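Handout for the seminar on molecular recognition.
Each group receives one record of this type.
Step one: identify the two inputs.
Step two: read the structure output and locate the region that could contact coenzyme A.
Step three: write two sentences on what you found, then compare them with the reference statements printed after the record.
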Amino acid sequence: MTDHVRIETAQGIMSIRFNRPEKKNALTQAMYAAAADAMMAAAEDNAVRALLIAGTDDCFTAGNDLQDFLNNPPQGESSPVTRFLNALVRTQKPLVAAVEGVAVGIGTTMLLHCDLVYAGENARLQLPFVNLALVPEAGSSRLLPEMLGHRRAAELLMLGDMFDARRAVELGIVNATCPDGNAYAHAYERAQALAAKPPEALRLTKELMKRGQREMVRDQMQVESALFAERLASPEAREAMLAFMERRKPDFSRFN
Ligand code: COA
């Protein structure tokens, strides 16, 4: 149980909101578990016609909690993060996201599994896995090259710099930008439009669009997560995460 995720269902829409603003909504195992459980419950509930994922008014999420990464590294298929990612990949319900502020790491990779994504004009996205001496997750090491071509994916995954909402729209990661602070309302309105559609036709349309992709993503996620676990235990990753906590630049010069 955690109050760091707010779950509400109204008007056919289940909204799942990360709510840990003092830590930029960094995701702990308890938060992944709460979000995964909500998505599993939604799958069984005909009253839920669409899912909406968001953060707080000025922050989506700074990604996995780095302290948690060091203290409780995710282990295997039953880990909360894997359950959350599997729920995102498998859901047959329409999935909408509203992004304000930062969307880092899984904050960006989860968007690759959403059907519609809206972002505040000043939203900033980042895939800093290499910077943390990790590897990409959530199937992003395959989804992004397929979506963008190798070079644009390499820019995001190998350089790992922040990019803005306008660039995210150009790349096709975000559908459209909204004035800051309006992404949730806009995404909610789009989710309502989806919730009013004939559900079976909508479900089948999503299934047709995802046909073949789920197996590929599942397979890639297994390879990624085995490497990710190895990387988390590496001295390089320890240096990267300690540097973040000690608010200094990491020094990778002693590694080969
Ligand atoms: N894990 C744990 N704590 C985090 C965090 C994370 N991923 N991201 C932010 N926080 C914490 C900070 O340690 C800080 O806590 P403190 O006030 O107790 O010191 C608080 O949240 C605010 O963060 P801060 O860095 O001061 O905010 P900012 O606006 O200057 O920068 C970010 C925001 C997101 C750019 C920056 O926090 C960051 O780079 N975070 C790490 C992101 C990351 O690497 N995620 C993992 C991806 S796999």
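Reference statements: The two ends are 42 Å apart (CA to CA). The first strand starts at residue 5 and ends at 10.
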